[in-house]
Amino acid sequence: MGRDSGSGGRPGFRRRDHSVAPWIRTRLRTAPGAAVALALLVMATACLAAAFPRAVERYEDAGLRRAVVDATAPRTSLQVSAPQPGTYIPQSERESAVSPASMRKAYERVLNVVERPLAVDPAQSMYGVRNVNSLEAAETWLPMPSGLPAQMSLAAQSGLAEHSRMSAGRLPRAGDTVTAATREVEAAVTTETAKRLNIKVGSVIHVPGMQRDPLAVRITGIVAPRDPESAYWTTQPLLRTPSLIRPPTQGGEPETYWLGALLLPPDAAPVLLGTPGEPARYWLLTPDPAALTAHDLSRLGSAVASLESGPGLVKVRDSTDADTGVSTDLDEVLASYAQLRSGVRPLVSVAAFGTGAVAVVVLLMAGRLTADRRRTELALLRARGASLRGLTRRLVTETAVVALPAGALGLAGALLLVPYGRAPYAVGAALAVTLLACAALPLRALAAHRVVGVHGAREDLTSVRPSRRRTIAELTLLVLASAAVLALRSRGTSGTSDEAFGSGASGDLGSSGDQLVAMAPVLIGVIAALVLVRLYPLPLRWLARPAGRMRGAIGHLSLARAGRTSVSTVLPLLALLTALTTAAFGGSVLAGVADARDRAAVLNLGADARVEAESALPATLPERVRSAPGVQEVTPLSIAYEAKPGAGVESVPLAGVDPEGYARLADRTGLGAFPAGELKASPAGGSSKPGTDGGSAKPGDSDPSKSSAADSAQPGTEGSAEDGGSGSAKAPLPALASSAVADRYGTHPFSLRLSDGSDVTVRITLVRDLTPALPGTDFLIVDRAGLGTVAARPTTLLVTGDHVSGGALRKAVAAGTGADADPTARADVRLRSEERARYVDSPLQSGAERVYAAAVAAGSGYAVLALLLALVRAAPERAALLARLRTMGLTRSQGRRLLVLEALPQALLAAAGGILTGWAAVRLLAPGIDLTSIALATPGGAPPTGTAALHTDPASLFLPALTVLLLATGIAAGQAWWTGRRGSVRELRAGDSR
């Protein structure tokens, strides 16, 4: 406070300035539409930004839990085992060490050793004592398939009453104190064990004793598992289901015997010390899948490694026994998931960076357009003495009043929309969006009004030359984009499993280099936008001169108006090109994933559906299948998987086909198309002339040293057609072979011994890498008409059709094979749609695809919003122009053409630039993008069929660009129509700033 003698208030004191708040309220009341639009923009952007990390965390955690559950308890359980107490200690101490109380204490101590974030599910964990070696049962009433006596495994495991229900009898009990010398104990068996081993309540089974009489085990109850698939029963499947064991033999008929489990009460565990079955103590700890999170993956791996061979193992041994060991495959399951995530996560990051860049550009553009609209107002405030600090403070406060509540609402919406995940990341993302929205307008005003001035110079796009700072910035972006493209092409998006599992750098994109790689498509779009803005004035100047000599003023005026567009058009163009590039890249990724799955399904099945049986199919089945709904063509095949060339021991899969139908199938599926005439057997058994097809094998192409099997086919060794032989020594069957088979056997004739004992002589005349009948790299295809009667009977049907009904097809196959009456005659029916669904094995894949598609859609929405903002910004000026021109005689149709032609150059520039930039981004980055992880992951980590590469998707290139073009011209035409219906008095007012 200071003195102010001229003040109208109290003498000597200056009044406190209360003008800020009233000014903010006045501004918000003056332009409520702009405030509402900014609030909606901030709220939507904050909601998307906050929802993204939570959605990613949700599907990653779901993928990890699915991976652990699918791996089954025998692999994921922590199996802590210790041998029986040493014989050098007193017998009473040995018996006490296996008592339920001692085992329970050790179990609790082991649970305390497990480090977070690895959590154990106590309900599915157990402990007990069991025989390592099975014990032979003396009872002859037990089943003996080969005359060998049945064997038993005794287990005294905790939790039997909680995980089973009584089917007959009662649970076993240990009456008095049980010791190693106890002569009889009680036990229970499961329903499956009782059924297969003919055990009933009251049965007594004797097992050998060690330095004592045999132990009698009386069955007091038969139990049924409450959940047969729970970890309690699946960790040790023998407890639930007996096994038929086939010991190794030296020739002769294989012998088998039954192995079952007898479930003793935990108090009877000491009796196992008196048997020769090598009793062992064990504690089985089952991880709780619901407590596993993907962001703790590296810590999970460290916790498992510590228990297996680290400090955790030392603590476990201190709690149990010095010889205790810990084994599990959980670390392999986690490593497999980490490898899959390392291939999926970078692709999602590419989409996130692209959409985020477009959203940032739109927020900056909204601030810049607001600053341009209020240029005169802010310049007047500066001319009247407003300081930069005061002006910036007012603008920040004005924007924050709108943006902060909108950001909070967006964050709340994201938390409700995705009610899973860590909140700090969502809060940080929403806060970043809100702060950017608050800073966009003040920073633009600060840059534009550093110098006091009422009138500014013209900033026409064709007249303003780029500054040195802009040139340096553009060159810097060009260097960054080049570095990102080179890094992506050389390194790819997928890190190794070790990196993803250990440090998480590759999977988390935590390093600056990985972020640069993920921003490669965005940087390409930014560079293209800057280049197009520099080149944009050139065609306008070239077209302005011939347009000026044409009749009518519409063409020349529209080009002049387009050339007088403000340089601020760089932001809308930047948003459009970045969005179009991201949409083209993202659409190509999604299309590549879909195509790879379709291709892999076709490679596995060879058609839209495959019907296959181990034996020959009925002759009437092809016609019955052909009449099923959606079926267009059925191709029968005779497949022999064990055809043996010459006198060798190796086998080659052989398929007999009808050349005409099979050639059509190969052409339709794109799997090794060939001319049907090249595969037909001549009526006399001769082959067609080889070498007429461009891909055919020609005599002399192969090394003679590779044809030892072919040379063994001598004249006179082939059988007749009635015996199953096909050709004669003069005319072998022409064959289509894979490259590997052709390299081994060359083009000389060689014989094949089929599984029915017949021989056939073939000669390789066609070589293809793929074929519909047989997947893999080894196959031979011949004319089925040249095979014998038995060998020519079809065993497989390849079904093609646009909409094959799985239910109808299975019903037709079951009726045709008689599987309804004879289950052994059942044929396997597989559909391409079902085979394709196998490749979406993890929520990690499906979730990543959904997030990727949502990111691309959001980026496209922001691009449309950027276009709308640019057009709305210029709407008042265009309305005033039309009003003035109508006073000079401009018709409504001419006004529409003027606005459409004015908007057309920028729209064409954005559309054409988007198409070219998207195409260039896909072509440049395709060598470094591997879609196999997200497209072709298979259950159990099996190797996928084929690979998935990125390729250009025409629809993703042209549809967004055409949408932008149509939207820009449509809005311009709509504005002209609406302006023509209104009066022009308001637009013609003198002194209007527009």
> What's the overall geometry?
flat
* Percent in helix: 40-55%
- The count of β-strands is 21
Radius of gyration: 39 Å
Let me know the average pLDDT: 78
Q: Residue ranges: pLDDT <50 for 5 or more in a row?
A: 1-14, 495-500, 502-513, 684-730, 990-994
Ends apart, CA distance between termini: 43 Å
Q: Please describe the biggest sheet, giving its number of strands, its sense, and whether it closes into a barrel.
A: 8 strands, mixed
Explain what this protein looks like in three dimensions.
The longest helix is centred in the middle third of the chain and has 44 residues. 46% of the residues are buried. Helix content is 49%, strand content 12%. Helix 14 packs across helix 17, helix 18 crosses helix 29 and helix 29 runs antiparallel to helix 31. It is built from 31 helices and 21 strands. Strands 1, 2, 3, 4, 9, 10, 11 and 12 form an 8-stranded mixed β-sheet that branches. A 6-stranded mixed barrel has the order 14-15-19-16-18-17. The two termini are 43 Å apart. It is flat and about 120 Å long. The chain is of the alpha+beta class and 994 residues long.
Give the gist of this structure.
With 994 residues, this protein is α+β, with helices and mostly antiparallel strands.
List the helices and strands and how they pair.
Blueprint lengths: L19 H11 L1 H39 L2 H4 L1 E6 L7 H7 L2 H14 L12 E6 L3 E2 L14 E7 L6 E6 L14 E7 H7 L6 E4 L7 E11 L5 H4 L8 E3 L11 E8 L14 E7 L11 H13 L1 H9 L5 E3 L2 H44 L1 H9 L4 H30 L5 H26 L19 H24 L5 H6 L2 H4 L3 H7 L1 H16 L1 H12 L5 H10 L6 H36 L3 E4 L8 H6 L6 E13 L6 E6 L1 H11 L38 H4 L21 E5 L1 H7 L4 E4 L5 E9 L12 E4 L12 E5 L5 H12 L10 E4 H6 L5 H44 L5 H34 L6 H4 L18 H28 L13
Parallel strand pairs: 4-10, 6-8, 15-19, 16-18
Antiparallel strand pairs: 1-11, 1-12, 2-4, 2-11, 3-4, 5-8, 7-8, 9-10, 13-20, 13-21, 14-15, 14-17, 14-20, 16-19, 17-18
Helix pairs in contact: 2-10, 2-12, 2-13, 2-28, 5-9, 8-9, 8-10, 10-13, 10-17, 10-21, 10-28, 12-13, 14-17, 14-18, 18-21, 18-29, 19-20, 20-29, 21-28, 21-29, 21-31, 28-31, 29-31
